[in-house]
Amino acid sequence: MLTTRATLDKHHSDVASMFDGVAQRYDLMNSIMTMGAVDHWRELVVEAVEPQPGQTILDLAAGTGTSSATFAAHGAQVYPTDISMGMLQVGHQRQPDLHFVGGDATRLPYADDVFDAVTISYGLRNVEDTSAALSEMLRVTRPGGRIVVCEFSTPTWAPFRHLYRDYLLSAIPAMARLASSNQDAYDYLAESILAWPDQAALADLMARAGWQAVAWRNICGGVVSLHRAWKA
């Protein structure tokens, strides 16, 4: 379990253990914390990835496979991959037709140039080394392939940022006390959002990793950002 306050320094075994502990109610908590908006955000990710029949898609930090199932429904061959075995076990129970893979985003168990698209939602900030993960995602993507990163970000309107910070640090832990047996995990998740780089800083990290034409779209005033880029 992560026992210290969230920063950008984290260890993959701690993160895996944390998500193991919240796996059963993770999807429920996502819906509660976002007041149902996560379903709409998932649709925007699918639009950005543009899954097509015959394409091969890597869904990182796939958790229980909710997003992966959507890609598969469009005819794509999807590989839901996650570091948390607890999440993968719950995912296999709920989505038995998907092929779940255990893997660390900084050391992916895939060959070079094999995926038409790679995507990660609400998971990049929990990776031990963000730059290494972005480089690994580039390695396994085919030339001309795309990356889509959906992540909590920085609200663009300054007055709202203060309200949003209060929501993260008070409302989310309160919700966790009611709906989850692991409040510490949600304390960490809230704090990790505040410690995460803003939209421009993430775009810079992606470009430094070798991704081309990096752009982003703010959702809900920047509460979430959708970054997209290409492999040359």
UniProtKB/TrEMBL annotation:
Residues involved in S-adenosyl-L-methionine binding: 64, 82, 104-105, 121
Q: In which pathway does it act?
A: Quinol/quinone metabolism; menaquinone biosynthesis; menaquinol from 1,4-dihydroxy-2-naphthoate: step 2/2
The answer on whether this UniProt entry bears the keyword S-adenosyl-L-methionine reads yes
Q: Which UniProt keywords apply?
A: Menaquinone biosynthesis, Methyltransferase, S-adenosyl-L-methionine, Transferase, Ubiquinone
Enzyme class, broadest EC rank: transferase
Q: What is its EC number?
A: 2.1.1.163
Q: Does the keyword Nuclease apply?
A: no
A biological process term (GO) from this entry: methylation
Reactions accelerated catalytically: a 2-demethylmenaquinol + S-adenosyl-L-methionine = a menaquinol + S-adenosyl-L-homocysteine + H(+)
The family classification in the record reads: Belongs to the class I-like SAM-binding methyltransferase superfamily. MenG/UbiE family.
Q: What does this protein do?
A: Methyltransferase required for the conversion of demethylmenaquinol (DMKH2) to menaquinol (MKH2).
What protein is this chain from? Demethylmenaquinone methyltransferase
Which gene is this protein's source? Answer: ubiE_2
